[in-house]
Amino acid sequence: MSLPIVFIDGDQGTTGLQIHQRLQGRTDLCLVTLPAEQRKNPHSRAAAINACDIAVLCLPDDAARQAVASISNPDVRVIDASSAHRTSPDWVYGFAQMNAAQARDIAGARRVSNPGCYPTGAIGVLRPLLDAGLLPRDYPITINAVSGYSGKGRAGVDEFEGPYAAEAIPFQVYGLSLAHKHVPEIQQFSGLSERPVFIPAYGSFRQGIVLTVALQTRLLPQGVTGATLHTALTRHYQGSEFVEVVPMEESRALTGIDPRQLNGTDNLRLMVFENEGHVLLAAVFDNLGKGAAGAAVQNLDLMIAGA
Fold first, then answer.
1. Residue 60: how many other CB atoms lie within 10 Å
2. Which class would CATH give 117-287?
């Protein structure tokens, strides 16, 4: 049996480079990339994508759409790390721990859209609670999140590590139009009936995300507490290899959350805090790990196993 051919289109960006580094030493697949002089040649790219078994697209949205449009080989399967296809009904959403059937759906899919980094945390804390009926689908959700500057891609790395790094703003809230491109993705896959408010920010650290959602128990179904929500999250992710729910007694001892604590891993860590009618849901993960390259490799492994 021949090894699956995996083609990375866009292996020089932050996500593509990480995926390439993770795969280049593996012996259970044949890794293909284009030499520098062919990367922008549409004919070379089309030939490579149509000759592979699984293409991993690490491209801007428009380029990802063009790459998919160039596929004429019906046997080619795709993982798209851009946001071009995340809310498309023809693509399987690549968050394997989202529900009991998602990993199986990814394994058998022809087209998989890798989740966005921020949506991974938001959906991770919200979806199990909405599915369990513990959080009303029309709850007025506000999501606050801070990412390392690598979330901007190469532009962010150049800004903070390049010759003008001393001039970089150390912390910046953005998305002030309240129309960030991740909002439809968060709403669709969390199961919210109303559009959430999403307030992202960048900090002066390379990678890592901390994301929080504040709730008021008076707006939740009668009898629902922080402990109830924590139990539901624990039950949902029980046995998960990549998602951890921190015991509430450990969370109570915390005085802060370092967004970098899971850097270099593919894990997602969830926490629940509670005090006098207020609950805070928190998620921590590496924006280049579970938020990007790590999720892509997890999806790739599922697809190879399901072939």
1. 15
2. alpha beta
Rounded mean pLDDT, 128-134: 98
Using CA atoms, how far apart are residues 155 and 60, in angstroms rounded to an integer?
13
The predicted model scores a pTM of 0.95
pLDDT 10s digits, 296-306: 999 999 999 98
Confidence of residue 210 (pLDDT cuts 50, 70, 90): very high
Tell me the pLDDT tens digit for each residue of 212-268.
999 999 999 999 999 999 999 999 999 999 999 999 999 999 999 999 999 999 999
DSSP category for residue 281: E
State the architecture of 5-115+292-306 in CATH terms.
3-Layer(aba) Sandwich (3.40)
- Region 62-86: mean pLDDT is 96
52 is catalytic: no
Q: Where are the domains of the chain?
A: 5-115+292-306, 117-287
Taking all residues of the chain, what is their mean pLDDT, rounded to a whole number?
Answer: 96
Which element (helix H / strand E) includes 5? strand 5-9
Catalytic residue of the set 30, 52, 58, 117: 117
- Cα separation of 18 and 292, whole Å? 9
- Any residues with CB less than 8 A from the CB of 260 and at least 6 apart, and which? 148, 205, 207, 208
Phi, psi (5° rounding) for residue 219? -100, 0
The DSSP output letter for 59 is S
- State the Cα–Cα distance between residues 24 and 16, nearest whole angstrom: 12
With a pLDDT cut of 70, the percent of the chain lying above it is: 100
The tens digit of pLDDT for each residue in 15-36 reads: 999 999 999 989 999 999 998 8
Task: Give dist(CA 153, CA 226) in Å, integer.
Answer: 36
82: closest CA among 68, 70, 98? 68
What backbone phi and psi angles, to 5 degrees, belong to 121? -70, -45
